[in-house]
Amino acid sequence: MTDIILILPVIFSIILFLMKSRTLNNLLVILYSVIFLLAAIFLYFNPNSSGSVFNNYFKVDSLNILFLLILAVVFAGVALYNHSFVKSLNLVVSQHKKYSIGIILFIFSMTGAILSNHLGLSWVFIEATTLASAYLIYLPNTKQSLEAVWKYVFICSIGISLAFVGIILLLIASEQVNSLFFDELYINAGKIIPFWLKLSFIFILTGFGTKVGLAPVHSWLPDAHSEAPSPVSALLSATLLNSAFLVLLRYYKLMDLSGLSGFANTLLTIMGIMSISITAIFVFNSNNYKRMLAYSSIENMGIAAIGITLGPVGIYAAMLQLFAHSLIKSSFFLTAGNILTLFETKKINKISGLLKKDRLTGWLWIACFVGISGLPPSPLFLSKFLLLKELFSNNQIVFASVFLLLLLIILFGIGRSVITMTFSEAEEANRQTESGYLYKFMYIPQAVFLTGAAIVGIYTPSFIYNLLNNAVIGCQ
C-alpha cells in the first residue's frame, strides 16, 4: 500500500506535465487526495501490510501513522477547498498545471519523509519539500512573494546543510554500527560515542528545527506562510512542520536510548520557549493576518518541543498538540483565504465588519480563534493543561508561570485582531466594495475540521486516544 501513495504522485505529475487541462489538474489533485486518505486509513488498520518494493527504507509504525493520517486528512480538505479557491487566482493554463504538479509533489515529498526508516533518506525528502513548495510560494508573482521564496529556499537550504553535517557526525559517532536505519541505530544505541552524538544532535536540531520553524531559525516561516496561496499556507503549517518534527522525534529517541535525553531536553526547551516568546512579541506588531497565523504556528511547534521533554504525559500532550494544531490551523488559513477573496487585502486594519460581509466566514474565523487559543472545547486546552500540570509536578513553577504568561499574551494579541476584524462596524469602503464569490466548498473543510477538533476536545474517541498513545510508545 505504501507503494501506491509513493508511486502514484509521480505518475500523476507526469500526466499533468504532458497534458494541458484545468479540469484534469483539479481532478487528479482531488483523486490523489482521496486515494491517499483511503490508503492511510487502510495502513492504520493493517500496519503489517505496508510491505514495499523499497524494502526496509519505508515502513509504517506506531509513531509515523499518526503523522500520515494527519497529512491525509488535511490534504483531503485542502484539495476540496483548492478546487474552488484556485478559480480566484486567475491562473493561465501553464501556471495552473505547475501549481497542481507542485501540490502533488509537495505531498509526495512529505509522505516520503514521514514513511522513511532511514535518516539519510529522511534528509533527502525534507530537502525535496523545499524544492517542491518553492514555486507554490512564489505563485502570487509579487515582489513580496519573490522575497519570501528566496528567503525560504536560502534559509532552509542552510538548515538542511547543517542537518547533513549532523548526519556525518552521527556516522563518526556510530562507526561500529555503520548504518543510518533508525531501527539499527536504536538497537545499537549503546555503541554510539556520546561526545560525537551530542555534537551531532546540535546540528540535527538546528537543521531540521529550521524546517520545523523553531526559534531562532524560524525567520523564513512568517514570510512564506503569509505570501503563499491559502491552501498552500495550510499545508505548510499543518503538515510540513509536522514532517520535519517527526525526524526530530526519531532522533530524540536515539538520544534517549543513548542516555543523553537530559542534553537533548535542555536544547529543546530553550528553542521551545524562544519560539513562544518570539510569537508573543511579534503577534502584536503584525498587521497581516496571515503573518499573524504563521507566528502562531511557531508558537505551537515550540509548545510541542517542550512537551517531548516532559516524559510520557508531556509526549502525549505534544502529540495531541500537533494533531489539534493541524486541524485548527489549516482551518484558520483556509478561512483566511475566504477573507482575502472578500476584501482583497491581508491588512488587519483594513478589514472590518466581517460578520456582516459574510456571516459564515465570520463565524468560522471566530471558531478558529477559539480553537487555536486553546479555549474549551479545543483539544489544545487539554494539551496545554497537561503540559502545565507536568511543569508544576516537576516543581518548575517559574518556568510554568512564564509559559502561562506568554500563552495569555498570545491569546490577547490574536484575539484583539480577530475581534476587530469580525465585530467592528463595517467601514463605508468595505460596504461599497464588491465581494469576491465564495463557493460552498470554501466553507466545508473548515467546518469539518473544527467539528472534529471539538469532538476530540469534548470526548476523545478511543481510536484517537489509541493513535496518540501508540505514538507516545513509539517515541520511547
Please tell me about this protein's structure.
- The protein is mostly helical.
- The chain is 77% helix and 0% strand.
- It contains 20 helices and no strands.
- The protein has helices at 2-18, 22-45, 64-85, 93-115, 119-138, 143-173, 182-187, 194-212, 220-227, 230-257, 261-282, 289-307, 311-343, 354-357, 359-372, 379-393, 397-423, 428-432, 444-458, 462-475.
- Helix 11 packs parallel to helix 17 and helix 16 crosses helix 19.
- The longest helix has 33 residues, at 311-343.
- It is globular, with a radius of gyration of 21 Å.
Spans of at least 5 consecutive residues whose pLDDT stays below 50 are none
Mind describing the biggest β-sheet? none
Q: What is the helix/strand order? A: HHHHHHHHHHHHHHHHHHHH
Helix content: over 70%
Please report the distance between the alpha carbons of the first and last residues. 27 Å
Structural class: mainly alpha
Strand content: under 5%
Given the structure, what is the number of helices? 20
- According to DSSP, the number of beta strands is 0
General shape: globular
Radius of gyration computed on alpha carbons: 21 Å
Helices and strands in order, then pairings?
Layout: H1 2-18, H2 22-45, H3 64-85, H4 93-115, H5 119-138, H6 143-173, H7 182-187, H8 194-212, H9 220-227, H10 230-257, H11 261-282, H12 289-307, H13 311-343, H14 354-357, H15 359-372, H16 379-393, H17 397-423, H18 428-432, H19 444-458, H20 462-475
Helix pairs in contact: 1-2, 1-4, 2-3, 2-4, 3-4, 3-10, 3-13, 3-19, 4-5, 4-10, 5-6, 5-10, 6-8, 6-9, 8-10, 8-11, 9-10, 9-12, 10-11, 10-13, 11-12, 11-17, 12-13, 13-15, 13-16, 13-19, 13-20, 15-17, 15-19, 16-19
